[in-house]
Design brief:
alpha+beta, YitH/HolE_GNAT, Aminopeptidase, 13 strands, Acyl/Acetyltrans_Enzymes, 279 residues, 13-stranded mixed sheet
């Protein structure tokens, strides 16, 4: 297997593979993911034919995230997956590495030095309806918030700055980005994006349950017809209650694991993670 960095065109193909696996990528994911780390998406080729892929996105400050790990069915069982894994881990060393792995692979990830920190659960519904919100703060278009303010706020909820990705994510075609505001400033923000099947909300960060619900409601109102999904950290019981009250039910789960010291993230304020691919 020959392993190299993906081009934008390669990434579009890998997203098709992800869709075939049932991962339901966003329609504009290719450009946003590429912006996160242009060299961070690897493709493995056998005799010139793409056989598998993996992401190894490096952020400033020694944090990396591993995902998008796919080997096409006809190339499995030959060691190609391990070759991709080793290439990805080598690219992210030294540093702390995170991943959202399928639960069935937890034992394998542990042998590579990863430790389970918490589960993420995907909630979804064909037509979720946000419950009424008491004392809802004002909701504005995220474009009304200075980017420097947004980037500083986002940094509280992610282990590293990710400005290039963030700029792409909040302005991508079809993405709806909103913010909750109050006298003290930014109270949270959220993004909804169209996917191959319906829409996903992520990230959704908020200072209070009322702010989270107000953002959630605004994004649900902006969603086109079709199912809506929210990937939330299981330790946030209020996020589960919010999703459940909207008629959503668990549809999928992943194991958030880290190799190295786990970042101390405020999960109580994380109502929706950005993506399983990038953390």
């Amino acid at each position: 297997m020959q392993i190299r960095s993906m081009t934008r065109e390669d990434l579009a193909l890998a997203l098709d593979w992800a869709a075939a696996e049932g991962w339901n990528p966003g329609l504009a994911d290719a450009a946003c993911f590429h912006a996160a780390d242009p060299d961070g998406f690897l493709v493995g080729e056998v005799d010139g034919t793409p056989a598998g892929c993996v992401s190894a996105v490096r952020y400033p400050g020694g944090f990396g995230f591993l995902g998008f790990y796919i080997v096409r069915a006809e190339f499995r069982g030959r060691g190609h997956g391990m070759a991709l894994w080793r290439a990805a881990m080598a690219r992210l060393q030294p540093g702390v590495v995170g991943l959202d792995g399928v639960v069935a692979q937890q034992a394998n990830y542990r042998t590579s030095g990863f430790t389970l920190v918490h589960r993420n659960v995907r909630y979804g519904a064909a037509a979720p309806v946000a419950p009424p919100v008491e004392d809802a703060p004002p909701i504005v278009a995220l474009a009304a918030i200075p980017f420097a303010t947004l980037a500083a706020y986002d940094r509280r909820f992610f282990p590293a700055p990710r400005n290039s990705f963030l700029r792409a994510w909040i302005t991508a075609p079809g993405h709806v980005a909103v913010a909750a505001t109050g006298p003290a400033g930014l109270l949270g923000y959220g993004v909804l994006r169209p996917c191959r099947d319906g829409s996903k909300i992520g990230p959704l960060f908020a200072e209070t349950p009322a702010a989270a619900r107000a953002l959630f409601s605004a994004l649900l109102d902006a969603a086109p017809p079709g199912p809506v999904f929210l990937d939330l950290p299981e330790p946030n019981a209020d996020a589960i209650a919010m999703a459940t009250a909207a008629g959503m039910a668990p549809a999928f789960e992943t194991a958030r694991m880290y190799a190295g010291p786990a970042p101390d993230l405020p999960l109580v304020h994380i109502y929706g993670i950005t993506t399983f691919e990038l953390g």
